[in-house]
Protein: Adenosylmethionine-8-amino-7-oxononanoate aminotransferase
Organism: Streptosporangium vulgare
Amino acid sequence: MALLDREHVWHPYAATPQPVAPHVVSRADGVRLTLADGRELVDGMSSWWAAIHGYNHPRLNRALKDQLEDMAHVMFGGLTHEPAVRLAATLASMTGLPKVFLADSGSVAVEVAIKMAFQFTGRGRLLTVRGGYHGDTFGAMSVCDPVNGMHHLFSGVLPEHVFADRPPREYDEGYAARLTDLVARHAGELAAIIVEPVVQGAGGMHFYHPAYLRLLRELADEHGVLLIADEIATGFGRTGELFGCDHAGIRPDIMCLGKALTGGYMSLAATLCTERVARGVGVLMHGPTFMGNPLAAAVASASLELLRERPWREEVGRIEAGLLAGLAGAAEAPGVRDVRVLGAIGVIEAREPVDVPAVQALVMRHGVWLRPFGRLIYAMPPYSIGDGDLERVTTAMTAAARSL
């Protein structure tokens, strides 16, 4: 299997053939991954933040099997079906945004949001903040950090948008004044402001004060600009609130959802908007082939039902407390610049880029799977993780920090 992988598979964010062979997984159950060689690892990543309920969940398995008996897929153009309609109604109820466009992935959801904003306003520029990440497709790349992000290779061919400095963790009047001035100066050309609420994910796992979200909502209203909230990483409880925007008590004009939407089972995303935006856009010229896939919609509805039933807020609070306690010692390591925790997100930021294969080998010796990047060793575990497994994750992270 490893030889075939090396010969034919091009993995994400990697050259081919990959210099370090990926680990073959034979089974995933609960919060554990079983490798082909028999080793068991506690998954501290929730498969890139998506598997919030853990793996092989009987409720989610049953939702897929039941739907498969009726219909695996049918085109969404001119046809509709109960799984997609039910999911859209649930998402509208959860967010207060009544119009739902179902897409294939988070990047596509962002593309759709950008299209909505351009069509609604007739303007063609966006404002965002440095340190952000919104996906790997072209429109999404154009609002990722153009200097420190992973897409600088494409800077010459991407549209140039307006970037504010990265928002600070604490509220700063000077930053707020500069942000206010920047929006005012460019308001006439802006279609929308797009940000990840409270937590910037793959751009560096930065946290910022919710007051800046409230300010952006006020500035968008004042200048007739739309506000897009990219909740792909922050949605469905990860930060301690159901959505990142809830920390600020605001509602965006457009919201992007993905990742945890299906509980990590299938690729599915959604772009939601207000009635006003939907009516202003009119015909949206976008239509993924697998839009509203019944299997994905059915398992997403089951995942959201499970989320509503489980005490996710208490679970995330317990994880936050465990991460705070377990990572406290890492802050003293000489190679560590910062340790930060919010909800079910724990981050160790190193002073220099980490040796990813070396760190992965170390944490795997502790029985843990993590995927560091840049200067970050971080965890976003499933909400179902037990205290013992969480302690194993933080012990592995602290050992990695001390090895830097």
